[in-house]
From TrEMBL:
Its EC number is 1.6.5.3. PANTHER family: NADH DEHYDROGENASE (PTHR22773). It is found in: Membrane. This is NADH-quinone oxidoreductase chain N. Residues 137-436 form the NADH:quinone oxidoreductase/Mrp antiporter transmembrane domain. It comes from the Archaea. InterPro entries: NADH-Q_OxRdtase_suN/2, ND/Mrp_TM. GO terms for cellular component: membrane. Keywords: Membrane, Oxidoreductase, Transmembrane, Transmembrane helix. The lineage of its organism: Archaea, Methanobacteriati, Thermoplasmatota, Thermoplasmata, Thermoplasmatales. GO terms for molecular function: NADH dehydrogenase (ubiquinone) activity; oxidoreductase activity. It is a multi-pass membrane protein.
Length: 492
């Protein structure tokens, strides 16, 4: 009787000691990357008692992230552990994307970091471990706790150098983060009251009751703050502008993609079916977000804030996928193919985005001051032609210009809208991409046509991170086979 009751309990664990031990071993096998990163984080803290070498901790953090990257690739997939954690190739892709978003900032951080490198790099590893749990888990409680762990670490990183600008941006971020967390708690609670489960894999044949609709609304608001979508974006502009460049890079990429993938799972599995109201809500939200971001960037003269507004616009493109998976009408292909294209587009866009946006923020480290204006880019081509070319490529990729990964990412996303018969939304998105070309070209013009205005601090770590990211962005333009692979495993 007791055994049957335990089996019916949501968090069932086997009674037999051998079965229990086997279950633990299964968990450990699948969580090797998470455990490894956690252990290495504590190792860095221990070494920090005797040494404060930035190069040492950067090297150890980079090696740890590289090992975790390999562990994710070689670990077994297509597994389901007690209906709580699911491991698929699609989860693997997002896991690798999230690890890369941290790898990009490891070396450039040495340029901006003023104190306690052991703590900073340990926090990066703990943060990555939290993101991997987000990628694997389908339990709302685990997802929420992991995401809040990630968010708390980003609060610390945003204020890490303890300058007035850092602290001002971090306080705004903390205040907005608490509001977003409150909405998520309300949403998850209402979701449980409506479905009687926290497990997204157990949600079947639901009816959209008022409580469930309200749960969705609360979670949209909660994650809307995290994703910095209109009208919940202003904190991001101030926080990105005030934080260290490497932290701004991560907040605009890794943190955002983690929240994006988390809510993608919640929406796709927790609110299954196709609802016209949900579709139009996300379509309008996407239009408002991308338009606000692009129009605001047009008139911005502060370069870092312009990149922040650009991040808002990019979030607008990303949430087009939320509209796609909610679309209820006839499509030009089968619905399953249409949804697969949407999910694959989300993954490919996320991959291109972390390189082009992450490296763009890192490029700001070439300046010796905090407040960076667009005309400060004047003459960069004369100081470092390859760096100027690389930065130009990153900006053109964000605009979606051909021969860049950003173009291919937007092509697949807009193509998905077209085969779904949502051509009007594709047209609006394309118009927004054209608008973005103007403010990106303004920056590039200063790079090549104006005399040198500022002294640039061309550190090797920053320079090569930007150059490598730019060439990867170009390589992504030719990666149709990569998209085909992602399309083949695009299942949540």
């Amino acid at each position: 009787m007791v055994h049957k009751k335990l089996r019916s309990c949501y968090f069932y664990m086997p009674v037999n000691i051998h079965e229990y031990w086997r279950a633990i071993m299964n968990y450990i096998e699948y969580l090797y990357p998470v455990i490894f990163l956690g252990v290495m984080g504590f190792v860095l803290l221990a070494i920090g008692i005797r040494s404060q070498s930035k190069k040492l901790f950067a090297a150890m953090a980079m090696a740890s992230l590289a090992v975790s990257f390999i562990l994710v690739i070689i670990m077994p997939f297509n597994g389901l552990i007690y209906n709580q954690l699911k491991f698929s190739r699609f989860d693997e892709i997002f896991s690798l994307i999230l690890i890369i978003s941290v790898i990009i900032i490891v070396v450039p951080t040495m340029h901006d970091l003023k104190e306690k490198p052991d703590v900073f790099y340990a926090l990066l590893l703990f943060m990555t471990a939290s993101m991997l749990i987000i990628a694997y888990s389908y339990n709302l409680i685990v997802l929420f706790v992991s995401f809040e762990g990630l968010t708390i670490i980003t609060y610390i990183l945003a204020a890490y150098n303890k300058t007035r600008r850092n602290l001002e941006g971090a306080v705004k971020y903390l205040f907005i983060g608490v509001i977003g967390t409150s909405f998520n708690i309300f949403g998850i609670s209402l979701f449980y009251l409506s479905t009687r489960t926290f497990n997204l894999l157990n949600v079947v044949n639901i009816s959209y009751s008022r409580a469930l609709i309200l749960a969705l609304v609360f979670m949209i608001i909660g994650f809307g703050f995290k994703l910095a979508i209109f009208p919940m974006q202003q904190w991001a502009i101030d926080t990105y502008d005030g934080s260290m460049n490497s932290v701004s890079s991560f907040l605009s990429t890794g943190s955002k993609i983690a929240a994006y993938f988390l809510f993608l799972k919640v929406l796709y599995l927790g609110f299954p079916g196709y609802n016209i109201y949900i579709f139009y809500f996300f379509a309008i939200l996407s239009i408002l977000t991308m338009t606000y971001g692009n129009v605001s960037a047009l008139s911005e003269t502060n370069l870092k804030r312009m990149l922040a507004y650009s991040s808002v616009a990019q979030a607008g493109y990303l949430i087009l996928v939320y509209a796609i998976i909610s679309y209820p009408y006839h499509t030009l292909v089968s619905r399953s193919v249409f949804i697969d294209f949407g999910l694959a587009s989300a993954a490919f866009y996320s991959l291109a985005y972390i390189f082009m946006k992450g490296a763009s923020f890192i490029s700001m480290s070439i300046f010796k001051k905090d407040k960076i204006m667009i005309d400060d880019m004047a003459g960069l081509n004369k100081k470092s032609p390859l760096l100027a070319f690389s930065f130009a490529i990153l900006l053109l990729s964000l605009a979606g210009v051909p021969i860049t990964g950003g173009f291919l990412a937007k092509y697949f996303l807009f193509f998905t809208l077209i085969i779904g018969n949502i051509w009007w939304l594709a047209v609006i998105a394309i118009i927004n991409s054209v608008i973005s070309v103007f403010y990106y070209l303004r920056v590039i013009t200063y790079e090549y046509r104006r005399p040198v205005k500022e002294e640039f601090n061309l550190t090797m770590g920053v320079k090569y991170t930007v150059i490598i990211s730019a060439f990867i962005t170009i390589a992504l333009f030719f990666s149709f086979s990569l998209f085909s692979y992602i399309l083949g495993v695009a299942r949540i």
